[in-house]
From TrEMBL:
GO molecular function: glycosyltransferase activity; lipid-linked peptidoglycan transporter activity
One Pfam family this sequence matches: FTSW_RODA_SPOVE
GO biological process terms on file: cell division; cell wall organization; peptidoglycan biosynthetic process; regulation of cell shape
Protein name from the UniProt record: Cell wall polymerase
One term under GO cellular component: cell division site
Its membrane topology: Multi-pass membrane protein
Bilayer-crossing regions: 12-37, 57-77, 84-104, 164-186, 193-209, 215-232, 239-260, 333-354, 366-393, 399-420
Primary subcellular site in the record, as a coarse category: membrane
The keyword S-adenosyl-L-methionine is assigned to this record: no
Lineage: Bacteria, Pseudomonadati, Bacteroidota, Cytophagia, Cytophagales
Compartments where located: Membrane
Organism name: Hymenobacter amundsenii
Alphabetic keyword roster: Cell membrane, Cell shape, Cell wall biogenesis/degradation, Glycosyltransferase, Membrane, Peptidoglycan synthesis, Transferase, Transmembrane, Transmembrane helix
Record keyword Transmembrane present: yes
């Protein structure tokens, strides 16, 4: 155990302040998104606790209060326990992800929520920081720059198993977050070629949806021939690799239709279609994004003012306190408020990277980069959803979006890192 006095000297208070600012501003926007002019003027004095729990803004206060208790627990636990029990927690999490689809009732088309009395928890949210712990523990035991093929398979298995189970519960958006771990692995020595190949694959798949396939095949073939003949001396040496690459790319180009029409579910296909052609269904699947962009654009430079958002008042944007919380920022606080929010997140990310870089252990450094990567992914995709640059996949905005599972998981994710960092500082003070 660690005493509070020692943590007062060692904890990174800059990160704590950023966390409190984000949570506080997030609550203001949850209140604005769920505010109703017909509500009692002073609900805290006129309504019972049970009645108050009907309001998202009050439930978010409860989640914030419990998150503060959770922080104290996380900082009291010996940080070595996060390393020691990482694999054990991972095993429990895998069992929970396997069981959840069988015991959870369907909510919004997915079976990913566990109900414990009045509390609903989403195991997929907590799987992110537990996977980060397990992957960091494993990377601390090997040298990623010199690892064997077996080591690569183990790391891939650790990272891919949770999202596969999450997809089985019909939570594709949460599963996509695990791709962010590649950024942390890249910092620890993973070949940049893997990132380049994945990025190139994504571009090819996107082009296959936008460009006639025969044109795309012809263009790629011409580019490949130019590259080969530009290096004619090594033509025979590179020919097998070139042919293999050509076969893979052609398979991707013509296989995208099968994946799009036979693998993706109907609502997933429609979301991608809306992303590629926003005007294709503005009153149907595209309604959320269309109204979100209207709300953000109507805010202008300085916004309409706190609680003055008309898109919010008349419920034009569904899920405005959760996935689309950022459009509340845009409408009521304008360009100034959205810029301030983005800057606040970027400062937090830079601070987390700074904390990660000063760790002396591979475990602490890798976990720190996992924290930064997960928050960065959520931040980019969520804001991208609200302005039509990313498909709507149900990704909450960290510390802003309403919900206990989201707030607890991001709080745990961040404060485990601060606990590890505080222990590092205490070790330095002894010498």
């Amino acid at each position: 155990m660690n005493t509070p006095a020692r943590y007062n000297r060692s904890i990174d208070w800059v990160t704590v302040l950023l966390y409190l600012l984000l949570v506080g501003v997030g609550w203001l926007n949850v209140y604005a998104a769920s505010y109703s002019p017909d509500a009692p003027a002073n609900p805290l004095s006129t309504l019972s606790f049970g009645q108050l729990m009907d309001f998202n803004w009050f439930k978010q206060i409860v989640w914030i209060g419990t998150a503060l208790i959770l922080i104290m627990v996380l900082l009291v636990i010996d940080p070595k326990a996060y390393d020691t029990f990482a694999f054990g927690l991972y095993g429990v999490m895998i069992v929970l992800l396997i069981v959840t689809p069988f015991i959870a009732r369907p909510i919004a088309g997915s079976r990913s929520w566990l109900e414990l009395g009045p509390v609903r928890l989403q195991p997929a949210e907590f799987a992110k920081f537990i996977t980060a712990l397990a992957a960091s523990r494993y990377l601390a035991s090997i040298n990623l720059r010199q690892q064997s093929f077996r080591d690569q398979l183990v790391l891939a298995g650790l990272t891919l198993l949770p999202p596969l189970l999450i997809i089985a519960a019909n939570e594709t958006g949460q599963a996509l977050v695990f791709g962010a771990f590649l950024l942390a692995y890249f910092r620890e020595g993973m070949s940049p070629l893997i990132l380049l190949l994945l990025a190139a694959g994504g571009v090819i798949l996107l082009l296959a949806l936008l460009v006639p396939k025969l044109w795309l095949v012809a263009a790629f073939t011409v580019i490949l021939l130019i590259v080969l003949f530009a290096n004619r001396r090594a033509l025979l040496h590179h020919l097998p690799l070139a042919i293999g690459t050509w076969v893979v790319v052609i398979g991707m180009v013509f296989g995208v239709d099968f994946f799009f029409n036979s693998v993706l579910q109907d609502h997933q296909r429609k979301r991608i279609e809306i992303l590629l052609n926003p005007s294709s269904d503005p009153l149907g699947v595209g309604w959320n994004v269309t109204q979100s962009k209207i709300a953000i654009g109507s805010g202008g430079l300085a916004g309409k003012g706190f609680l003055q958002g008309t898109q919010t008042k008349f419920d034009f944007v569904p899920e405005q306190s959760t996935d689309f919380i950022f459009c509340t920022v845009g409408e009521e606080w304008g360009w100034v408020g959205t810029l301030a929010t983005i800057v606040l997140f970027m400062v937090l990310l830079m601070r987390v990277v700074y904390v990660a870089e000063r760790q002396k252990s591979v475990f602490g450094r890798t976990y720190g980069y996992c924290v930064a990567s997960i928050i960065f992914f959520h931040f980019c995709v969520n804001i991208g959803m609200t302005i039509g640059l990313a498909p709507v996949v149900g990704i909450p905005l960290p510390f802003f979006s309403y919900g206990g599972s989201s707030l607890w998981s991001f709080t745990t994710l961040l404060f485990i890192l601060l606990a590890i960092d505080a222990a590092r500082k205490q070790d330095l003070e002894r010498y």
